[in-house]
Design a protein that fits this description.
The chain has 369 residues and is α/β, with parallel strands linked by helices. Helices cover 40% and strands 22% of the residues. It has twelve helices and 14 strands. The strands form three sheets. A ten-stranded mixed sheet has the order 2-1-3-12-11-4-5-10-8-9, with helices on both faces. The chain binds nicotinamide-adenine-dinucleotide.
Length: 369
């Protein structure tokens, strides 16, 4: 008998509302195992403040090695006031940075989709955001957040100087650009590359490398270059002009938050962080909602699980090659919103308020149909 390789998924719920929202994903994975004969092997462990409380470290070596071995990591959120005064190296957020760095997750994908049912939740006019579907690809392991030299140093006149260095190599630019071009081919075939090539040499290299890769391998994809400050304006003026935006770590951090807010609610926004393929061709990856641990609502059963559920849908598509199941799950989320079910963060007049677990159950019920 052929032995089917089990697909390992590691759940790291973390802190605050993390365990509540990841629990809904767990139910959905179990549903897929049972009803679609999928063979996901689930493991779950501690990360962030929860790991610190038990092991005095935000991530143990054991969990880190588990993350290296699985096909996808689904993370809830880490952090909270309880751990705010810990030494920098022990803070819950260090676990995230370690996972991103050691798994070499260089491409952060953040879709900004404006659900038609929630168009009113955006601060922009409905006609500007209705039907919005952008994918922002942010370079995640290079640029000014990692460049050397860095630090704060005393200088001659008694003042201090803060230093960070913005650097990119051709290879770092090329690999993230490739992700963007490949995504565009499956979407509306357009990539907008954002930089500050007018004032920064690293930005000039960014533009040149992307242009060269486009010419070499992706002539059929429409490419435009845009200065990052103009992109910030265009996102508010006419966001629907974009399909895939690719940009560096710093600009990506800011532009992806801006694009996220066009959609209205933090509780709906998923993300994927993708790395290089290992020697067996498996992609290293981590999926997590954009929101944090929301300590203000933790334990109340009111958190919106949709961002985490849609993050799992991205895992189905990008790590597990299960496009059909990913679409099925996206459609189930749409259907539940169509039916008027809302968690507290997105409630409006005439809609029915449901708890975290009721939202998960309703999505499963739609999958069942
Ligand atoms: P947050 O995203 O946790 O919360 C911001 C606001 O949005 C809160 O009012 C919260 O109740 C609400 N919210 C967030 N997610 C929601 C959901 N799923 N459903 C309903 N409402 C939701 O940001 P914050 O308050 O700035 O940070 C809280 C903690 O989370 C901090 O310790 C921060 O460091 C951490 N954090 C972690 C991550 C991560 O793990 N990736 C990301 C951001 C912040």
């Amino acid at each position: 008998m052929i032995k089917v390789k089990k697909r390992k998924i590691l759940l790291l719920p973390g802190d605050g509302i993390g365990p509540e929202v990841v629990n809904e994903v767990k139910k959905i994975i179990e549903w897929f195992n049972k009803n679609r004969s999928l063979d996901f092997e689930l493991d779950q462990d501690l990360v962030g403040g929860a790991a610190y409380d038990k092991f005095k470290t935000p991530i143990t070596d054991e969990v880190f090695f588990k993350a290296l071995e699985c096909e996808a990591v689904i993370l809830g959120a880490v952090g909270g006031p309880k751990w705010e005064n810990l030494d920098f190296s022990k803070k819950p957020e260090r676990a995230l940075l370690k996972l991103r760095k050691e798994l070499k997750l260089f491409a952060n994908l953040r879709p900004a989709i404006c659900f038609k049912q929630l168009v009113e939740a955006s601060s922009l006019k409905p006609e500007i955001v209705s039907g919005l579907d952008i994918m922002i690809v942010r370079e995640l392991t290079g640029g000014i957040y990692f460049g050397e030299p860095r630090g704060i140093k005393p200088i001659d006149n008694g003042e201090r100087k803060g230093i960070n260095t913005h650097t990119y190599t051709s290879k770092e630019i090329e690999r993230v650009a490739k992700v963007a071009f490949e995504l565009a081919k499956k979407r509306n075939n357009k990539v907008t590359s954002c930089d500050k090539s007018n004032v920064m040499e690293a930005g000039q290299l960014w533009k040149e490398e992307i242009t060269a890769l486009h010419k070499k391998d992706y002539k059929d994809v429409n490419l435009e270059h845009m200065l990052a400050d103009n992109c910030a304006m265009q996102l508010l003026r006419n966001p629907k002009q974009f399909d895939v935006i690719v940009t560096d770590n710093l600009f990506g951090d800011i532009l992806s938050d801006e694009a996220a807010m066009l959609t209205g609610s933090l509780g709906l926004l998923p993300s994927a962080s993708l790395g290089a393929k290992d020697k067996d061709g498996n992609l290293r990856s981590m999926y997590e909602p954009v929101h944090g641990s929301a300590p203000d609502i933790a334990g109340k059963g009111i958190a919106n699980p949709i961002a985490t559920i849609l993050s799992f849908s991205m895992a189905l598509k990008y790590s597990l090659n299960l496009d059909k199941e990913s679409t099925e799950l996206d459609n189930a989320v749409q259907k539940v919103l169509d039916d008027g079910l809302r968690t507290k963060d997105i409630i409006s007049e005439g809609k029915k308020e449901v708890s975290t677990s009721m939202m998960g159950d309703a999505i499963i019920a739609c999958l069942q149909k």
